[in-house]
Amino acid sequence: MLAESAFFLAYLVFSSPTSKLIETIGYKRTMVVSLFIQVVGCLLFVPAAKLVSFPLFLTAVFVVGAGVTALQTSANPYVSILGPEGTASIRLNLAQASTPLAERLHPSSPALTSSPTSVPTPPRRQLLKPCASLIF
């Protein structure tokens, strides 16, 4: 419960500052900055695990949430201005619809990018099952 609260509290706290950041440096640079914020948040999980510190873990979740907030705040309007105004909702829907597909394929990506000449071992076969269910 606290982890979800820390993540979604970032939406409340960083929505307005992100809009000011977009005004200052633009959509593209804000998206890059937001990805770096997410990287910092992910790197904070390492000391949180080594120190076994729940407050530091919550801080890492909050920082990742801040990065996601900045990314969504900058990416959604950017996608809508990329083409004609009449098709903006279609572009936004396609962008949002591709997220579950990417989430489904992500765990399988190491197995798909490994050497094609190697025979899949049983653990690698398990990684390939989600992809197989999408294709067949």
Task: Please give the structural blueprint.
Layout: H1 2-25, H2 27-43, H3 45-51, H4 54-81, H5 88-105, H6 109-113, H7 122-135
Descriptive key words:
single chain; 136 residues; mainly alpha; 7 helices
Description:
- There is one protein chain.
- With 136 residues, the protein is mainly alpha-helical.
- Helix content is 83%, strand content 0%.
- The protein has 7 helices and no strands.
- Helix 1 crosses helix 4, helix 2 runs antiparallel to helix 4 and helix 3 runs antiparallel to helix 4.
- It is globular, with a radius of gyration of 19 Å.
- The chain starts with a helix and ends with a helix.
The N- and C-terminal alpha carbons lie at a distance of 37 Å
Radius of gyration: 19 Å
Mean pLDDT: 82
Give the beta-strand count: 0
Helix content: over 70%
Strand content: under 5%
- Count helical runs: 7
Largest sheet: none
Order of helices and strands: HHHHHHH
Query: Low-confidence runs (pLDDT<50, min 5 residues)?
Result: none
What is the 3D shape?
Answer: globular
Class based on secondary structure composition and strand pairing = mainly alpha
Question: Would you kindly provide a brief summary of this structure?
Answer:
With 136 residues, the chain is mostly helical. 83% of the residues lie in helices and 0% in strands.
